[in-house]
Amino acid sequence: MPPSLKKLDCFARVITPENIEFEYALAGPFQRLPAFIFDFFIRAVVFFGLLILVAVLTSWLPLGQIVVTILALLMFFLFSWFYGIFFETRYNGRTLGKMLFKLRVISVDGRPINAVQAALRNFLRLADMSLMLSLQVFDPEAPPAYVIPTMLVGLISMTLTPRMQRVGDLAAGTIVISEGKHHSPWNHQPEDLRAFGLAELIPATFQVNSSLAQTIGLYMENRKRLSTMRRHEIAKHLAEPLIREFELLPDTSPDLLMCALYVRVYLSEEQRAQGRERMRQTTPVRPMTPPPVSSSFSLGPQSVSAQSMSVDNSPK
Amino acid sequence: MQLDKTEIVIRQRTAFELLDLSLLVLRRHWWPIVTTSALLGLPLIALDVWAVYWMLGEDAYLAAEHLVEPQSAMRWRHSIHLFLLYFIQFQIISLPTTVFLGNQIFYEEMPLKKLVRRLWPIAWRCLIVLGLVRLGLVSFILEWFVDRNEVFDWTAEFTLLIVVTGISLLIRACWPFAPEILGLELCPLRAGWGKEITYGQRSKGLHQLLMSDHMARFIGASFFGILMTLMILGGCLFAQGVSTGDWRWNGWFDHLYIPVAMWLSGLFFAVFRFLSYLDSRIRLEGWEIELRLRAEADRRRAAMLPPDAGGEIVSAQVTT
Q1: What are the boundaries of each domain within chain A?
Q2: Is there a contact between A173 and A162 (Cβ–Cβ < 8 Å)?
């Protein structure tokens, strides 16, 4: 299998008419199902609530039952067909369920959907709920009414289309996206200020390509959820060759070196200078000699080499 | 093997995202997943169907004749037995698919022959863990001890339907990744001279901290699994109803539709469990970061070698 195959993930690239490219997290059938169930529940509650209210209000009328029946049919029709259309048009592609589960319907070109698109995708929901089973499944004497949905068409359609679109989405030219939070590698300050000092020890000639920069960013984004031991284990894969390359002391903490690389790659010169200044104010000078027990288990900030401390306390 | 060249984007995901991603994986690799799943799945399902076939026979109906609807009662009994046997044996059935997927994400080809060669040396430990400890084969053996003259056998049948199923549910909900530990990480049952991490140690490390997560996912997956099986059964019933006009639960339903529906939804959940395993490793061990760092280190090492040493030369140009 060639590595050139497109990577699998629930993402879609959308190019807007203004030629701007966005990447959206697609919502497939399983992300949509809770929103669908919630919307169904809301509709059912409102429908039965209104029905009871109407029944109570019209109980004194001579034709009360007929009025309730007519209103029930009318409400059922409106809720079934126009709930989705109303909310998706009014609230920019979101029903109440979609708001709750952070989903949104957009056009395939990234623009908000319009009323026609909302109507089309909601009217075709019936097609997505097919194949419909006959009532005769339960009773052979029942009329052949195809009313029990299997939803297989929707599931198969979402599985087979690259943007996970059901039949209604294909017809309306829409996709459903998930609006979860996005991560950024830019907003991470190393809590150990000595990373600013160690960053100054990285040779000026050391060049960072985009792949390495992304790796360092990824490490900083995620290191806080890892134990100290695991950080050490992971970071040493890259840190060990770099420690040799930069001629640092062998017991330099791999985690701290990764933080120093982050400082070097992602922070501006001004931020680095501020960091060094804060470090001078808060960190006492450590002895020049390496710690008495130095091993590969010298983890965390305590194992920053004496060499690095001596250098980053000197004026730059 | 390039460690950061994975076919699936390695990142943390929610359970719903994993379910959606399972569909994408299934769409792309449907044929290898079907064949690897059939490797152990078809023989075991065929054996299960054979083992419970008697429940739809005349003798079983006679034993249940005092019930209001003996035929319907026996049909339900047959279906429940078949479903539970498949559920308990699912970890064995999905083992080849797991090994295939584990290699496929690093773009390493795994044809069926190679897969069998890979599974052969670990067959014994898989049999012990998945067949005996996780009751996959125990359930099958127990099925043969069910008394055929009783409507409900309070010894073997009770043990199978309540005790074995209960234990299996608990094990699968709390410690779901046995096939991955055995088939992909190749952990032995006992530490040898090399002091390798044993199956037990690895299982503890991988499952203990995320046990509540695993249970929640198991409950969610069970809900979707039942839903999906019903949807497929509905599809089969639709095809039968439209083509023959017969919408009833009949022999085709018992002998074909139920096993097919279970097997098809099983394909999906083998993929889902594998993706959940990746996600657990990402959450617990920062696996995605480790892969990236190791790949970067490999690239730097290769770049340091002189060109005649065969190292890959990487441009040192700053591109940040």
Answers
A1: 11-178, 194-312
A2: no
B288 reaches A (C-beta below 8 A) = yes
Residue of A nearest to B221 (CA): A30
Are B292 and A137 a contacting pair at CB < 8 A?
no
Q: What is the ipTM of this complex?
A: 0.84
| Per-residue pLDDT in tens (0 to 9) along chain B, 320 residues | 555 678 888 888 889 999 999 999 999 999 999 999 999 999 999 999 999 998 888 888 887 778 878 888 888 999 999 999 999 999 999 999 999 999 988 878 888 999 999 999 999 999 999 999 999 999 999 999 988 888 888 888 899 899 999 999 999 999 999 999 999 999 999 887 767 889 999 999 899 888 999 999 999 999 999 999 999 999 999 999 999 888 888 888 888 999 999 999 999 999 999 999 999 988 888 888 888 888 888 888 887 765 554 444 333 332 22
Residue window 20-49, chain A: list those with CB within 8 Å of chain B: 25-31, 34
CB contact under 8 A, A150 and B5: no
- B290–A240: do the CB atoms touch at under 8 Å? no
CB contact under 8 A, A131 and B235: yes
- Separation in Å, CA B108 to CA A1, A267, B34, B104: 7, 38, 18, 5
| Nearest CA-CA distance, residue B58 and chain A, Å | 24
From the centroid of its chain, how far is CA A185?
A: 15
Nearest partner of A300 among A248, A228, A230, judged by Cα: A228
Query: Dihedral, CA atoms, A40, A44, A45, A51, nearest 10 degrees?
Result: 160
Query: Under 8 Å CB-to-CB from B314, ≥6 apart: which residues?
Result: A209, B299, B300, B302, B303
B267 inside 8 A of chain A by CB: no
**Alpha carbons B15 and B19: distance in angstroms, whole number:** 6
Per domain, the residue ranges of chain B are: 15-285
**Å between B2 CA and nearest CA of chain A:** 10
